[in-house]
Amino acid sequence: MMYQALPCPPAPPPHYFDSAEALLCMQGEGRSLAEMARLTGLTVPQIHARLQLTALDPALRALLKREGVPERIALTLVALPDPISRRRTALRIIRERLCIRDAALLVASAGRRAPVMPEEPRQRVIAVIRDVRPYRNAIRNIAEQMKTAGVCATFTERKTGGMLEMTVSYPVRRRRVERFHSI
After folding, report:
1. What is the mean pLDDT of the chain?
2. Rounded distance, CA 133 to CA 55, Å?
């Protein structure tokens, strides 16, 4: 009786997290995305997506791998800003057995609720205009408009000690509140 060797079943493809780790090592060796694509048989967008998966912390990766969460759901978790919200959202996805679409909606809503880290205050640029004539003319025009409107406004301009002093004076009514306080 002769035994015939049975063909070995093909090895299952590596888990996407294992593939992501291998791609990260290849990138660390200085390989380009195109070269990695040629060597692995993946497309450049697939490689880019797998490299994004390495942003997830190892404990979360182990949980997702153990629970058999699809790669696209793991990719949606990368969009969340911090590890705590990623883990909380992943546990809910696993508990409720959400499909990819529902998981993406959950991640989007969790991303909107996540606290936003305050940005450093930006420095404001303030333009310095050395020519005062536009301001001077504007103040004169305001005083003229007040006179035209019937307000008894006066405009005085005086140069003292290298300084230009402009004053617009006009009468004001006593407000009703001020009248009651003076009684």
Report:
1. 85
2. 58
Q: What's the CA gap between 126 and 67, in Å, rounded?
A: 56
> What single string gives the DSSP state of each residue in 42-60?
--HHHHHHHHHHTTS-HHH
Q: Which residues, 6 or more positions from 97, have their beta carbon under 8 angstroms from its beta carbon?
A: none
Chain-centre distance of CA 126, in angstroms?
A: 26
Helix and strand totals (H; E) in the chain: 9, 2
The candidate with the shortest Cα–Cα distance to 75, out of 153, 16, 28, 133, is 16
Q: Is residue 159 part of a domain?
A: yes
Residue 156 near residue 167, CB atoms below 8 Å: yes
CB environment 94-128: b (16+ within 10 A), e (fewer): beeebeeeebbebbeebeeeeeeeeeeeeeeeeee
Strand partners, 77: none
Domain count, the chain: 2
Question: Do residues 83 and 57 lie in contact, with contact meaning Cβ atoms separated by under 8 Å?
Answer: yes
Query: The domain that contains 53 carries what CATH number?
Result: 1.10.10.2830
pLDDT, tens digit, 9 for 90 and up, residues 114-166:
665 666 777 777 777 777 788 889 989 998 998 898 888 888 988 888 888 88
Q: Identify whether 3 is part of a domain.
A: no
